[in-house]
Amino acid sequence: MKFTLSRIIRSCLILFFFIGLLSPASVSAQTSGLVYAVQPGDTLSAIAGSFRTTTARMQQLNYLPDPNNLSAGHKLYIPGFEDVQGEVIRVSLPYGESLSSYNNHLRLPEELLNRLNFITNPDEFYAGAPYYKIYTDEAPQERVPVSAGWTDLELAVKQSASPWTAAEFNHLRGPWALVANDTIFFPTNDANPGVQTSLVNASLTVSPSPLPQGKTIEFKAATAPGETVSGSLGEYALHFFPADEMNAVALQGIPRLAKTGLTPLVIISTNMDGSTFSYQQNLLIRKHDYGQDVPLNVADNYVDPEVTLPELALVVQTVQDAPAEKMWSGAFKSPSPFVPYCLTSTFGRLRSYNGSPFEYFHSGLDYCGNDSTPIYAAAAGIVVYSGELTVRGNATIISHGRGVYTGYWHQSKINVSVGDRVEAGQAIGMVGNTGRVTGPHLHFEVLVGGVQVDPVDWLQGKY
Please, what are the domains in the chain? Predict the structure, then answer.
């Protein structure tokens, strides 16, 4: 068979064409538009969903014959953004940062960022949510919280800049558009070193996040000398205490049956001169599955709201204070002498009483034992309740400071009184069979910020 030069060239071109179809391209043949670099773990369907398009359009635009054959680093064009030039990258919306202040910090048009993130209602965004921006070389900036009561002139004097410079750099219509409790930015240079910034928009951490039902959340904020911090999470006041010279910490429990979705976080900082800065940001509460117990049958009075609700209110009222002294150190000790633990039920498990729906939950850990089994204080603290309750039986509540409490229910004997200071591992009573029980055991609870939380985290020394 004779091969002419033209036939050889034609065969090579056909071969290269099919190789091109079988290999994932970094980008399509187009030379402009918005591109996204594939990250480890990304899928084409997830990328398409983030930008409100389809995998078919992504395949067509990027000549991808196999949507499952993606490699980290491959750059894909995004449909619908042909008029936008640059590389879009995914970040997380920082804690302590409002959407408007973060957009100002990026120095990108708000309209473009809203379009990239399909934002129609800024209140639907939450801290830690994925956020898309165009990659730019970010110049050093000084972030300045606008304290309540500051005038545009006062702000400019503190920054050694004219009010019009502040307005221009922050895309404001004029100096009069400065809003209290907003954050603005100035270019940083030798002539304008700026002032020491507040904790807000600088260093707030929330852990764990999103907020799991039934868990203890730690809020940690950097503070300037003389600065104090307060705030709230939904209906709960946050009590901040110094962690060290540069940070303040607050602990707050998330109710086991808290509604999933967004909840507002409010942070207020107060400076030495009395000026304040506050901001609000949404956080996300997520579902946490603790399992389910078998249905239980008890006397009707033990589930009667006229009995259970006043008793719960008494307990909640008892654990409202947040004394400044931190009396615990490290992991809580087991309240039971049995090692390994002898547990009959764990925290958070959904429960049904007397044929009801599974609308109750188990609020602590149940340790086995009998009236000869001692109960130990889990940590050092002050006894704030000691007495008999209907549902909880003979009960002891100990304050460990900073809004952290432990409860010990169903005792046969109580060995401490209100006002006693106890040490970790001290015997405070005996296991019993009092209150709403189906057999002798110790029910052990941890309450943080007035909310029952998973004791396991405290026994493992996470706080």
Answer: 5-84 (3.10.350.10), 87-134 (3.10.350), 141-187 (3.10.350), 204-286 (2.60.40.10), 300-459 (2.70.70.10)
